[in-house]
Amino acid sequence: MLVVAFVLIGHFQHYRSFDPAAIIQTAWPFLASLALAWVLTRVWQKPLSPLTTGTGIWAITVLVGLALRAIGGVSVAEPFLIVATGLNFVTLVGWRLIASAAVGRGSR
Questions:
Q1: Which pLDDT tens digit goes with each residue over 15-74?
Q2: Quick one: CA dihedral 105, 42, 9, 69, positive or negative?
């Protein structure tokens, strides 16, 4: 869901529209790589772990997503690379840091 939010917000910021075809073109590489990341990191084993799960999901999602964009002939300009890397880190790892801290406090 957070990957879709990243795409929708970014798309609206740049184009001021919600063109479904353009949103799908931007989103599919990251959604496909997110699905791959879930399988490779076995997210179901430690869903809240920021280090074990979060960083693995983030790295795979960003690296494979950007590679799929490039292979598909879509721009992977440096600013997009920086924003995609940073915002996906915040959304894919950040919430896990908060959740694991909250769960840790509750169990003490």
A1: 777 788 888 888 899 999 999 999 999 999 998 899 889 999 999 999 999 999 899 888
A2: positive
Burial class (CB in 10 A: 0-12, 13-18, 19+), 73: exposed
Q: Residue 108 — very low, low, confident or very high, per pLDDT cuts 50/70/90?
A: very low
Q: What is the DSSP string of the chain?
A: -HHHHHHHHHHHHHHSS--HHHHHHHHHHHHHHHHHHHHHHTTTTSTT-IIIIIHHHHHHHHHHHHHHHHHTT----HHHHHHHHHHHHIIIIIHHHHHHHHHHHHT-
User: Do 39 and 45 form a contact (C-beta atoms < 8 A)?
Assistant: no
